[in-house]
Every structure is written in C-alpha cells, then in structure tokens.
Q: What sequence folds into this?
C-alpha cells in the first residue's frame, strides 16, 4: 500500500457520495456526517446496485475518519468502485492517475515474495580412505578334565532323608493363613463398595424434574428458544438453553429450586419451587410480550410490491401503535459493533420512523433490553441491528 492508494481511496469516497446524492437526500450531503437511518438507506442502495454490503463498523471506520490511515480489503474496494460506476478498484485508479504515477498490472504481489533465496554449499563430507585391518580372533579350546573317575571307589554316595507326614501343627498353621488372606480380600471389597457409595451419593439420591413451557394466551408449546438460569446459594448462576418445543430436565438433590426464565417475545419470569413436595413434571405458562411480537411481525413482513394504499395503511397503523406504547421521554439507544461509535441515542420520532421503514435491515433487529413504567408505557429501549458484510 502506498500513500497514492490512500489518496485514491479519498477520491473514491467522494465518487460514492456523489453517486448516492443523485437519487437520495440524506440528513447531510457530507458522507462523514451520516448516521443511523442514513447509513441503513445507503446499505440498501449498495445492495441494490452493487450486489454487496458493508457493515456499520466498516462504514464508521473508513467513512467517518478522513483521511484514513489504512486501506480497506480489496473486495470492499471493488464493491465501492462498482457502486461508483467502475468495473473494479484497478479500473478506478487507472482513470484517476496522478502525475507521474505508474500503475502495476498485478498489485497483489509483494516484491519480497518475488525474490529467490540463494543457497550455497560451503563444505562437503569426506569419507576416511584408510582401510581398517581385519581383527583376527584366536579360538582356544580348553582341555576337558576328567571330572568323573572310571572307578567308583572314591565317589561319594548322596543319601536323601525320608519324607515324613506333615505334623498336625503345620496343617493348622496353613489353615489359619488361608483364612487370614481371605479376610483381607473381604475387607477390601467392603471398603471399595463404601467408597463408591460416598463418591456417587449425589447421583444415587438425586431426583430428576421436568418442566415444559406453553404460551399463556394460545395454550400451545412455545416455539422459541428459552434461556433458563438456575440460581444456587453461594454459587454462580448456571445457564441452560432449551430448544423450541423441548422441555427442561434438571436432576438435583436440593430441596429448593430457583429459576429465571426468559425467551424472545415473552415476558421475564422467576420461578421458585420447594422440591420436597413438588411434582416431578410440571407445565409453566409464559405470558407473551405483545410489543416484541408486534415489532417482530412488522419488521419481518414483506410489504414491497403490494398495493401502495395497503402499504401506507400498514405504516400508519404501526406508527399509531408505537406512538401509543412509547413514552415521549423514553431513552432509546442503538448499539453498534464499532469500538469508537458504540452507542447512539435516538428520540421517539426517529425510532418510530426507523421501525416503520420497510427495509431488509429490520429483519436483523434485536431488542436487547426494554423497560416499562407502572402504566405500561415503554420508558427505555436498547436495540441492535446485526449486519454482515457478506449479506446480499
């Protein structure tokens, strides 16, 4: 990468900005001042014209800072060049050459990668030329002495003592040793059994409880993932994730069970059970969160290509619902992936406009946290719109 590449990228940013301004009217003409809904509209136009996408993190990294100190990846440079009306990043630079600039045909190679490593052999291994004289071994045959005389006159005669019957005392001693050895085997086996019972007492004496979850309004199994935190005294909570439609099975020997239950589109619930008299199987009802369900339905409903009057009617209906549910003084925060621009505060009207604009980005909307006052009005919302540069 050279300084000229960075200057070319600054030119490309201006061309991208000019291309977008031909058909759109953002809050500011300067692309470095765009945020929130302006970025979302730009991502939509980029997907439509260049068949690609850049994340909010990349936008903040390369468009909010000027001049930049590093160049984006080549795929992002090609994508932005195509959006500005060029075949590729190379073609863009080719048409914007500076005085005296020479453009290489292949910029992906390093000069260091093209150098050949030279190897030299400084010495060779010489084998010794002297012959090793063979070693001769002399085999001496020892003389065999006459170990046995031919005569029998001087040979000793070996006598064996006569075998007698074992005494009664010896037999009694063997019996006692036999019983002593068997007694140690019996004691060892008993100790092993006791140790096993102590080691697996939790498994042996614990019971398994099953909890299934249903929608309180529809009386049917919940088809969303459920998160359960089991709270134990003096211990960190244990998190379990239950797949849609499945029940939660928990084995314990404790007498009290405390659970914190949460699921998308359902209200948070805390459950406490005395397991001494609790049933082993139980059905727990979760109350739907109407706001989250309505928001999910609207954000994922595709109304493009339909009757324009029907589209306008749905948007007005949704705005009216949101205006009635959200407090005028609500604190609304959007979370970004960028380390520099991590949070952005929106007022009520901007948030409602964002939620009632039918874009594909809303399909990735995730409500992180929402709080209500005693009257049911929403006073706090924290949300995030997940983005992926590979989304088309």
A:
């Amino acid at each position: 990468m050279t300084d000229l590449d960075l200057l070319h990228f600054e030119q490309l940013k201006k061309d991208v900005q000019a291309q977008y301004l031909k058909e759109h009217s953002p809050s500011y003409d300067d692309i470095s001042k765009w945020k929130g809904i302006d970025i979302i509209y730009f991502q939509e136009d980029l997907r439509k014209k260049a068949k690609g996408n850049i994340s909010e993190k990349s936008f903040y990294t390369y468009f909010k800072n000027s001049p930049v100190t590093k160049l984006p990846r080549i795929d992002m440079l090609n994508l932005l060049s195509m959006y500005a009306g060029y075949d590729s990043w190379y073609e863009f630079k080719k048409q914007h050459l500076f005085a005296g600039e020479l453009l290489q045909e292949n910029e992906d190679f390093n000069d260091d990668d093209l150098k050949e490593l030279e190897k030299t052999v400084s010495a060779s291994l010489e084998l010794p030329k002297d012959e090793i004289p063979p070693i001769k071994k002399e085999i001496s045959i020892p003389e065999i002495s006459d170990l046995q005389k031919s005569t029998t006159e001087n040979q000793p005669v070996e006598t064996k003592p006569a075998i007698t019957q074992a005494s009664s005392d010896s037999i009694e001693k063997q019996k006692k040793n036999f019983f002593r050895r068997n007694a140690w085997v019996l004691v060892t086996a008993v100790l092993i059994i006791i140790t096993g019972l102590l080691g697996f007492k939790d498994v042996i004496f614990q019971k398994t409880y099953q909890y299934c979850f249903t929608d309180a309004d529809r009386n049917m199994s919940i088809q969303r993932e459920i998160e359960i935190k089991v709270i134990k005294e003096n211990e960190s909570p244990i998190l379990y994730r239950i797949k849609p439609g499945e029940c939660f099975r928990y084995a314990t020997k404790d007498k009290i069970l405390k659970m914190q239950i949460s699921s998308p589109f359902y209200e948070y619930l805390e459950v406490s059970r005395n397991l001494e008299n609790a049933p082993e199987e139980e059905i727990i009802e979760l109350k739907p969160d109407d706001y989250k369900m309505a928001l999910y339905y609207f954000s994922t409903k595709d109304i493009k290509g339909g009757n324009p009057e029907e589209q306008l009617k749905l948007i007005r209906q949704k705005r009216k619902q949101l205006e009635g549910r959200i407090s005028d003084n609500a604190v609304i925060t959007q979370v970004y992936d960028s380390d520099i621009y991590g949070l952005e505060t929106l007022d009520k009207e901007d948030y409602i406009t964002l939620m009632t604009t039918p874009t594909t980005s809303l399909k990735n909307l995730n409500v992180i946290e929402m709080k209500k006052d005693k009257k049911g009005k929403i006073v706090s919302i924290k949300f995030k719109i997940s983005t992926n540069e590979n989304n088309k």
